[in-house]
Design brief:
2 domains, 153 residues, 41% helix, Alpha-Beta Plaits
Length: 153
């Protein structure tokens, strides 16, 4: 297998909170090989749209493609989204059902709960806010020091 990462997107990285990660895979059979990338793009976009309908925010999306097998093109998708009110299996099944006409075969590989997701930007914002609180603490100590010195005079 010659897996190639075709998409690695991080979005909404200021999000901090409960998130869920799901791995799923699908294959595009031989008749659609000429448009396999188009079929996969439609399927993944339908997945993103379905997440938005359920009130979930997509945080990360990674897609790998394996065009080495004869006849089929295999795809593996990893997505991280804010906690969804729906079950992931229903979301993925609903998306695939919309495209069942082309004979896409899929499987839900794994599902995991991320108790506290901290996006890259959120972590940087936290560090910046900690620096700011450090400067505020130094300023407060300086002001209190001046006040104590004036009281002693």
């Amino acid at each position: 297998m010659a897996w190639e990462k075709i998409t690695d997107t991080k979005m909404n990285q200021t999000y901090v909170g409960h998130a869920e990660e799901v791995w799923w895979s699908f294959q595009v059979p031989l008749p659609e090989q000429l448009g396999a990338r188009i079929v996969s793009d439609r399927l993944i976009q339908a997945h993103i749209d379905e997440l938005a309908k359920s009130g979930s925010v997509l945080l990360e999306l990674t897609v790998w493609e394996d065009a080495a097998p004869f006849g089929d093109t295999l795809y593996t998708v990893r997505s991280v989204a804010s906690a969804s009110p729906l079950v992931w299996g229903l979301i993925v099944a609903g998306v695939v059902a919309a495209l069942l006409i082309i004979g896409v075969v899929w499987s839900l590989d794994s599902f995991s709960d991320i108790v506290e997701y901290v996006g890259k930007d959120a972590a940087e914002n936290f560090i910046d806010s900690m620096k700011l609180m450090g400067y505020a603490a130094i300023g407060l100590v300086a002001i209190l020091g001046v006040a104590v010195l004036r009281r002693k005079r």
